[in-house]
Amino acid sequence: MTSRTAPFRGTAAALSAAAAVLLAGCGPAPAPEPRAEAPAADPNAAFLAEVAARCATATASPTAATSAGDAAAPADPESRKYAENHAYRQQTELSPAARCRGEAHAARIRAELAAAPVTDPAGLTALLRGLGYPVGSGDVYEGNAVQGPGFALLLPGAGPCVSGRAAAPAAAGASPAPARAEAHGVYLEGGCREPAGGH
């Protein structure tokens, strides 16, 4: 009498042998995927931490505070008309901490512009990005015969704006205008770049 399990045993043995041959021809096991490296440390982290610590307890200076009476419209009709025509230049007010942060960043940018003068928007963009500032479309713009290329940035986080210009090219017989950068609030009409004009 023949056993019914004999064909099964033969098939199982054949499958085991085939698997062994296939595995032997596969070569070594693939190397594990390299682990993703931690992102490089932000070279500006120390500066940002120092500014945050310094400005956390900033208070308004007595000369920076204005009373409600000072902000009222001027009584003189000509002065009122002038104020109305220049209302597009109005900016939001900065808190003491925001002013402190903005002035620290402005001083840093001025120092870098003095150390590494730039003459075109591409050079100014590279300088600002090298300092860790995100520069978007329209944040850096052309200069002219009397002014170097300019920039208007909203500082990452809670602001404020920092705007300025690289040094102007030297005119014949005159010294170039120095680089400048200043902190300010956002313009009421929107953005960090001064609006083109009033009415």
Radius of gyration: 33 Å
Query: So what's the overall shape?
Result: globular
List the helices and strands in order.
HHHHHHEEEE
- Going by helix content, strand content and strand pairing, the class is alpha+beta
Report on the biggest sheet.
4 strands, antiparallel
CA-to-CA gap between the ends? 112 Å
Report the count of strand segments. 4
Strands of the widest sheet, in order across it, are 1-2-3-4
Counting DSSP H or I runs of 4 or more residues, the number of helices is: 6
- Mean pLDDT metric: 74
Topology overview:
Layout: H1 6-24, H2 45-55, H3 68-71, H4 77-85, H5 96-115, H6 121-130, E1 140-141, E2 150-154, E3 161-165, E4 180-184
Antiparallel strand pairs: 1-2, 2-3, 3-4
Helix pairs in contact: 2-5
Summarize the structure in words.
The protein is an alpha+beta fold and 199 residues long. It contains six helices and four strands, in the order ααααααββββ. It has helices at residues 6-24, 45-55, 68-71, 77-85, 96-115, 121-130; strands at residues 140-141, 150-154, 161-165, 180-184. The protein has a four-stranded antiparallel β-sheet with strand order 1-2-3-4. A hairpin with an 8-residue loop joins strand 1 (140-141) and strand 2 (150-154). The longest helix has 20 residues, at 96-115. The chain is globular and about 45 Å long. The model is unreliable at 34-39 and 63-70 (pLDDT under 50).
What labels would you give this structure?
globular; four-stranded antiparallel sheet; 6 helices; alpha+beta; single chain
Quick structural gist:
This protein is α+β, with helices and mostly antiparallel strands and 199 residues long. It is built from 6 helices and 4 strands.
